[in-house]
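Aim 2, interim progress: modelling of the alpha-L-sorbopyranose-bound target.
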Amino acid sequence: MTKKTINVALIGQAFMGRAHSNAWSQVGRFFDPPRLPVLHTICARHGETLKTFAEKWGWRKAETQWEAVCADPEIDLVDIGTPNDLHRPIAEAALAAGKVVACEKPLAGTLEDARKMRAAARNSKAKTFVWYCYRRCPAVALAYQLVRAGRIGKIRHVRAVYLQSWADQSIPLTWRFDGRIAGSGSHGDLNAHIIDMTRFVTGEEIVEISGAIAETFIKRRRRMVGQAAGGIAEGLTASSRMERVTVDDAVLFLARFSTGAVASFEATRMATGNLNRHGFEINGTKGALRFNFERMMELDFFDATADRAMQGWTTIYCQQGAHPYASAWWPAAHPIGYEHTFTNMAYDILCALGGKKPIVPLPDFEDAYQTQRVLEAALISARERRAVKLSEVP
Ligand code: SOE
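Predicted structure of the complex, ligand included:
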């Protein structure tokens, strides 16, 4: 029986354009999804590089106007891989046209935009998804399963970090440093991931933020002009002018979860030497879990119910047997990488659209809005130097 296909239109041809193109082109080769994606249209502003991108990745059509993509009756799913400021207008147009929408994280650069995207999703029958890809590291998905199986008992203490290294002043002022486009800096870019991951693994919501600190260390950077063709800065040229950086380089905060667990979150672009290190520790009454993305195939587990003489940290290598997603890829102990988390997510999206249960839950706009509320509450806590209850940020 010929499988029903989903005509996908992807908006964005930079870093996420490549990650998503790879995921949509690979998912049908490694998984057996109930729906098969068709790489129908690639859309980006800079048409001169778009034709090459379309040919390289196998997109059937190239388009420079996202509005035309959202109105195209042939398109079933609009995949938003643009900078944050375009998430809302594209999602609103696509949902109004009845399209499924898969949007990159964070949901939006601001809470106001996120609220409007949630409203558009509520007013549409179409499903929505947000590419919080790290949920689909097999180790993070296993952590989710172990918590639900009660293996660490009641959660008492959560610690999460996302450490990057952009301390070099010569790094140019691209959109991630421009508050009008990104909304915030390390906070919405990095804390968004670890807030989502810890909410996902614990299954609990954050109810209060306190002690937040936001800081911008490098106050001015040289603006890049031109277009990013492929990589983050590929094809960009430095302008002659230095401009003010209008977002944070680091945001740290403390939090309390709904069940009373306490937590600390750290996101920074100033962790020199840490290029993309993130992870969490989740400590419960019966055990604990540790994840470090730099060792993304491994999950550390401590079983506090074991015979005391036998207690110790176990490192689980999450590429064997029944580990999440393992059977789609390679034989035991042959690792997968960052790109595969997107392919894993493309599979789960196609499952959700084809009436099959995803391997682990997918964040929709409603779920991602909860992460956006935490982001906003932390900014209020930093700005007003006070504790902020999430009930203050509806
Ligand atoms: C830049 O900080 C970035 O590309 C983030 O935007 C991604 O979400 C993260 O996965 C890698 O770093």
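The two ends are 47 Å apart (CA to CA). The mean pLDDT is 95.
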